[in-house]
Fold these 4 entries.
Entry 1:
Amino acid sequence: MPTSDLTSVDDLRERILADIEPLPAYPQALMDAFGLASAEDVHADVSLPSFDNSSHDGYAVRFEDVASATEDAPVHLPVVGEIAAGQAGLLALSPGTAAKIMTGAPMPTGADTVVPYEWTDRGVVRVVVSQAPARKGEHVRPVGDDVRSGDLVVSEGTVLGSRHLGLLAAVGRATVAVRPRPRVVILSTGSELRDPGQPLGHDSIYDGNSYLLAAAARRAGAIAYRVGIVPDEPAKFLEALSDQLVRADVVITSGGVSQGDYDVVKEALRPEGVWFGGVAMQPGKPQGYGRVGEDRIPIFTLPGNPVSSYVSFQVFVLPALRRMMGMRPEVRPVLRARLTGPLTSRPGLRQFLRGELVTASGGSSVSPVGGSGSHLIGDLANANCLIVVPEDTTSVEAGATVDVLLMDEEF
Ligand SMILES: Nc1nc2c(c(=O)[nH]1)N[C@H]1C(S)=C(S)[C@@H](COP(=O)(O)OP(=O)(O)OC[C@H]3O[C@@H](n4cnc5c(N)ncnc54)[C@H](O)[C@@H]3O)O[C@H]1N2
Ligand code: MOO
Ligand SMILES: [Mg+2]
């Protein structure tokens, strides 16, 4: 197939993303929302802090009462009470008095400043203050200093990590609207495939792809159902597929999409209206995408070569899963690194070569790992990045800067 007949990587990705919608949102208890995207803009119902409180253990005072305190001319104040965190304490502090106050405890009205213990004799009945605060309000955390009631605290699409869950709890939210993890069904096609742990004939190979794809889906945040192996028979493939559709938000198949006589996926799904075609990339040239079954479940039919499956997942499936979860489609930063040696690339195809990225203070460098063959899963596992060579580039010199995408576990 001449490269002019191929669909571009970006066109297919955009077509897929235009077809995929976020899954419906539902309210989720905070801890179970970890790692999911917020499906709402959350505004604070309270301010943080919600009352003026002390940042130090010490004495609540009026600034003017202690402003002159020095080591040589300390100020003496009667201690009229004590306020710990969680205790409403004194209602009002009269001029010329002090109240013991603990970190986080509410400031009594009338007091505007806190003198830490270290600047005093820690007196119980009377306190001797031998250092003056620099300003009124020192060691006091005023209402709304951090967050004001009504502020946007988490915006829609934010992937909820520890910081966000901590903040949501801090403003009193017990639940947050999220989108569910997509349920991804994974089918490997190929009569040559065997399950790991089973005996291998001279003409059979182990099914690596369903593990690769299930792990990649799980890493993306999805729930992966690894169905296993389906032989190269259209009727059996369609039967296995229809059995699985009830529990699928997405289906991924591997194998059977190229030009071969037993390319079962293409044969079975083309009549169903699934699109099959060549994409201007290597690995991952033969691709298919469409919808199947009564519920029109999105299906990605990835090529069978293991590296092709991996790259196709990263380029097409991952952005789609992220959109379903209400996340921005791209997750990887595109890094730039200096190439340690020259490389060549096929014209008209975007090539994803395996590389080893080394980051150093003087800048990052990247070296190709292994060859460009789509079957080289050993090298795929050893690499830590993909070097992306654009369609119009056929050679890159040593020392030139290239785009690099980190592998799944590396970011
Ligand atoms: N005449 C042509 N032949 C091929 C072309 C082409 O354009 N013209 N394209 C090649 C490219 S590029 C790719 S990629 C592959 C895609 O093949 P299929 O998607 O049809 O996959 P299969 O034929 O079933 O298998 C290809 C290869 O991968 C191995 N495989 C399959 N499934 C698994 C699995 N689950 N685990 C591990 N390995 C798997 C399979 O044994 C084959 O070696 O087509 C080229 N051919
Ligand atoms: O596109 Mo295939 O994935 O080159 O081997
Ligand atoms: Mg084939």
Entry 2:
Amino acid sequence: MNARAPDPALKLVLASGSPRRRELLGQLGIVPAAIRAPDIDETPGKGEKPRDYVNRIARQKAEASVPSDDELVLCADTTVAAGRRIMGKPADRAEADAFLRLLSGRRHRVITAIAARRGDEIRVKDVETAVKMKVLSETEISNYLDTGDWDGKAGAYAIQGPAGALIPWINGSFTGVVGLPLAETATLLRTMGLVFGGKP
Ligand SMILES: Cc1cn([C@H]2C[C@H](O)[C@@H](COP(=O)(O)OP(=O)(O)OP(=O)(O)O)O2)c(=O)[nH]c1=O
């Protein structure tokens, strides 16, 4: 991927309404100059593969977020895949319950695609992590649902919250599961010319 020249005047716009993504950028020392969450239809296509889906949605979010000349836009999309099944954010407690029962005791994949846009140039990168959820008892399921932490989370869980107690094992990027794979995001932002975290 050919890198753009570092441009200290370039400002980052986070095109995401996810507070987790803003916090994760904070870990890199990046405070977005603006937050503009695009409103796009995230319905998966019939039979669409999970990885194709997150790449398409991340790209569509970037296409819907027009940067000004001094802006670099960052978007992301995270989905939980069990086999070919795509699990987005649960509509309600009942769907969250169904998701958790599907994930209980099995390995699944969390795929996050990140997209950076400068002018008309969009670059997309996806990161996949394998996650193993323990076998959940009825009590664990109802206690977790009572926390409400499943709301707004793909797959009806947030590994960085109380669900951490339900996940003994991952193989891949922890920050990618949360919603912004920081190693890949840092590389992508630097190759697009953003200056952060010390000398370019
Ligand atoms: C699996 C998992 C998801 N999530 C969250 C991250 C995302 O906020 C959400 C995935 O939904 P997304 O549609 O990727 O993101 P969003 O709707 O929250 O925000 P936007 O579309 O504006 O960028 O699930 C966690 O916080 N922890 C986890 O462990």
Entry 3:
Amino acid sequence: MTMESEVTNHAVVVRDAYKRYTRQAVVLKGLNMTVEKGTIYGFLGPSGCGKTTLLSCIVGRTTLDAGEIVLSVNSKSDIGYMPQELALNKEFSIKETMSYYGMLYGMTKEELVKRKAEMYSFLDLPNENSTIDEISGGQQRRVSLSVALLHNPELLILDEPTVGVDPLLSHCIWQHLLTLSTVHGKTIIITTHYIEDAKHAHRIGLMRAGTILAESDPKQMLTSYNCDTLEQVFLYLSHKQESGISYEAEQQEMKNYPNPTKKPVAPIKNRMDICPVHIYSHIWKNIYWLKRNKPILAFLLTLPIVISALFVLTIGRDPLGLKLGVVNEELPDGIDVCNRFAANLTCSLEYPMSCKFLDTLEKKQINLIGYRDHESARRGVERNHVWGYLYFSRNYTEALFERIISNLRASDESLNTSELKIWMDMSNQYIGNLLKRDMYFGYLSFLEHVYKTCDWPPEAATVPITYEDAVYGSNTPSFTDFAVPAVIQLSEFYLPMLFTVGAILMEKREGLLERSFISGMTLPEIMVGHAIVNFVILSLQTLFMWVVLFIIFDNVFNGSLLLAILLLYLVGFSGMCYGYFVSAICDTDQAATYMGLGSFFPLAMLSGMVWPFEGMHYLLRAIGWCLPLTLTTDAFRSISSRSWGLNHPAVYAGFLSAIGWSLFFSLATYAIIKLKNGLRTKS
Ligand SMILES: Nc1ncnc2c1ncn2[C@@H]1O[C@H](COP(=O)(O)OP(=O)(O)OP(=O)(O)O)[C@@H](O)[C@H]1O
């Protein structure tokens, strides 16, 4: 008889099933099992004998290494599966849980209301607004059972449904299952630890060490083995099996483990089409989750605002109120005496020129602190009171005038005396360079002022270089202009990644993804559903960042808004794909956190976000060009400050990079899922 013909009379047929997780851990060893239609099959065996593994193969959670499983049903929606673990979202209410699965099974509102009422009366479920987290363990198991029964499936596969349920309710459940099979013709496979419970089943299979020891009607089994209880039958058969297994036989079995060239396929093939109802239900599931986790939603929406506001308010602005020491031998009574000199004397020797220069520095909001001599000023630097000090010689003003007026004929002494000497604390590169810049430009404007007040041509005081209007950007660009594209790109990449990893890992860890897959959902449907929710959140995040960076703080943006937004969406999409990739690789939040953080810093540094790319080691530059945010950041800069369009290589390279990385992460995720045989944790 062929398997196909066997299945016309039977609901489940398993033949010569082999399965192992590692070379040594063989779980199924040529197992055979037959379940007749419209019956209850009690599946018994000690913990760890492979019951769950076999059920997983039947529902298509995992595949056999060899052998065959044929089912009478041909769609996942005809199966109701209750896994051993809870596999329900604990934050959802019972009502939300049922609504989600109702939507997933394509039930109409009326059907759902009717079935829900039946479940409530038979399983004595608590208030529908209670969250799964709030109810007892036994009540949680009952909700899980009601989810498996909700869509009235043809084949029910229940892994330990009566664990944690009181004897009275357990009896009720058995009675209901019996009605389902005998009256409604449903087939039920049920595993249980309570061997005596299984006597209610029409047929039982005793499993041990990867095979079925015996399979028959419970009464017939007791008679055949002349035992009073099923427990005695099981012990008798176990002893018999034990005495028949020698070490050599086990080794031989291991050697003979079948390795067919063609791997067995799952009993129900995965659908290739995309079902809008499934996507819709996944979107609702995300909405329920966000509703239950308002602080997380608030965090996701306020984080971009906080990042952009903090960035603009803290980074790129010139430090104010920096302190500089002054040793001024021109003014023995201290620098405060400068106020006593009339400004209209600025072209006379009566007016100390050092005062004029110090006045220029004060206008640049530099705090000047007078010191008596070099020693005290140096001590001031060493004690971190000032960032450096300036020294003016006693005859500074005369020497400066002589230097200007005599120019080429000025004496060495006047050249030396008119020189302003500065000692700086350069341990802080930014502050040191900013003070140097202020002193340099301050000196130029001071000189120009002197020339003007003395009626000398001011052009003679300036450096003969003129910066005309910049072709792109401003002649006085700020660090903020450089860094805004980097901040927005990093946020657009990492925020969707954060949401994706959080959502997928939680579903994976709790077994929710598995349950959705077994209920007929496919990976592409989950990804599309998640992408739609992510797209809405990303749109809000982008809007908020845009308002803060470009509207409230008025950072430079001169290009096409449409192009920039499109680029940001693509970057967000590649971030989401990276999130899928991390969720596929990592099983725990901890591993995902390490991976996220571990990639953040190299990505930020190697993408030329913190420092111009051209300053990088040439080998790292080669790596940097290949990273997901390098070309996209460059493209955003080109759009925002140069108004370049999509026809410019710098812009379309960014678009191509985002598309390429999205493809790469998607393919890599697919490969990992294939390699790990599904998107599930190891347990
Ligand atoms: N993903 C996995 N990787 C490696 N080993 C596994 C995996 N899943 C299960 N096993 C091992 O396979 C064996 C059978 O496990 P399974 O969960 O099928 O047993 P079970 O009969 O359902 O046990 P229980 O009644 O305690 O649930 C166990 O030894 C288990 O450690």
Entry 4:
Amino acid sequence: MKLPQDFIDKYTHLLGDEAPDFFESLDQDSVIGFRLNPLKNDYRNIKYSLNKTIDYTNDGFIGKVSGRSLEHQTGYVYSQDLSAMYVAIVADAKPGEKVLDLCAAPGGKSTQLAESMQNQGVLVSNEINYKRAKILAENMERIGAKNVVVTNESPDRLVSVFKHYFDKIVVDAPCSGEGMFRKDHAATKYWHKEYPNECAKLQKEILVQAMQMLKSGGELIYSTCTFAPEENEEIVSWLLENYDLTLEPIKRYDGMEPGRPAWGNGDPTISHTVRLMSHKFQGEGQFLAKFKDNTTENKFKVKKKKAKKSKGISPSEFELWNEFIKPFKSELSNLNINDLKLNGDYLYYYPQELPDIEKLKYMRPGLALGIFKKNRFEPSYALALSLNEVSDERVIKVTKEQWKQYVAGDVIPSNESKKNGWYLLETEGKYFAFGKLVNGTIKNFMPKGLRFTAIDESEYQ
Ligand SMILES: C[S@@+](CC[C@H](N)C(=O)[O-])C[C@H]1O[C@@H](n2cnc3c(N)ncnc32)[C@H](O)[C@@H]1O
């Protein structure tokens, strides 16, 4: 790969003897990984090999998964770089917490945060770019998360709703992307000598907003996929100088290096941060820092948040929803009317305790359950992917070939003896969509934009 001369000069100076190994590592092939999703039923039941484990994860593996496999479509697997996997592990989001992922698309870290929260608490996954936010929302639906709001906002506008609200905030910042050079050679074209400084300016702007949303005593997780000290140790130094924050030590596994105090303001605690350098570590370049806020509750006058409003769900709509969901006997079969929110004709399951987000742009204000059409309720694809245990009476098992037909957009002929109506479709133990059985045919409700041609069985690696 042809690296910019200024980049070579910079890292020759910074890394000294290590520089040749570092440059060589950027020419090597990337090691590819994936994660399993513990939110899913029997989540280890997949066809991909789980032999190559990663020591700092429970559910991360080395290997390549196809976006056209059953496992991917049903959200059992998520393809992710090995280094990127460490960010959400360090964040350690817990069930019941209020967590913000401020720069979240396409969703590698957010899906992992949602998984570790086990559908309890609130995760706000935000992405400023609309197209990317759409992909983020699709990924959140695929993994079946029930407690996630996907917003499409600038950080400053989020502050107006979420002032000092979050226990944890992840800022996986837009950066100069030097750590991605190996995976994406084209990234070198955007790089110029001043680029890291330009990115650092934006990172500070984002962090100023993030700090206004962090609770007293909360934790801020900052990460980049670049090697540049300007965006890493220097940003950490700036945060320590301008806020009442302490760096928490991050556990280092084989090949992980401490951040370098000398590349920041010399504060020795900068060694609590972690650098993943491509000549020492299998994944792509990454930097991680975890801060604890030291302020006390009284410092901020946190306004009492407005209670959420349940927007105009009529008793008859609530009845239609219940008529649909009760026979499934699922974990969503007994929702309270206050858990539900109507947006136009769409019904959402809205995380408890969330302030009113109506003035924000959002992609999904919770889990999309379905849509009211005249006098009936039509379930969403997202609802199908979020259900885990349902009554056998409401399930139709189909073959893998029939699954392939369905995801390609075809109807499935069926000799099923069950009566006409909505069923959750299952293959190889995985629920993959709703289908409507009408006189021996299962009608297709796969969203048009998500249809695809599935891989052949021989393509599993
Ligand atoms: C490193 S990527 C995030 C990757 C993501 N966390 C993941 O794990 O999939 C950084 C994101 O920041 C977004 N971004 C760019 N400018 C921003 C800004 N001014 N404020 C907030 N986010 C911004 C980009 O659109 C991009 O999606």
